[in-house]
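Methods — Computational structure assignment.
A single polypeptide chain was analysed. Its primary sequence is given first, followed by the predicted tertiary structure written as structure tokens.
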Amino acid sequence: MTPNLDLIEKVLSLIEKTQIDPSGLSADELNKQQRELSHRKKDAQELIDDVLTHTRNYSERVLQMVNFTDSPNRYRMEDWEYKEKMTEFDQRRRASHNALIDSIAIAVRYVRSNFGKLSDEELEGFENDLRRRKKSVLASERVAFPNNIIFPESMNINDRYQIADWAEKLAQESKLRDLAKE
């Protein structure tokens, strides 16, 4: 069972199914909007792939740290040497965790803004921002994603510990799925 991966795949499927509403658009404008929508779908996929990559990297850093602390070789080290090594592992783990959190924030914001149902005020602000940046405002349908987009509803995406737990579960699900494919 892979509920976290299933949710991500559901979100990607909903994004992929998004279409331009052709009402009132010339053939030229419709083609232009379809190309732009295709680019945004690709960007969303890449951002979610980045989250998955950062999840794997974070999980590997945690595993390296655990393997070191469980290693019998650590008892052969001087205290200062052990502390130095643990500090190094912890800094790498923390940097990886921060990169994961950043990638999550970027992906969720992008997917929500470009594809999700927004309040009238949020939509107006987003469309004004697009116009300011001379980007197309797409006449596409908006998707009612789960509140946390790629996370379980019960999760607080601003909680570092919950993100760490989610990342570990996601990495385990990914490994299980890879094993099932073999």
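Note: The first helix runs from residue 3 to 17.
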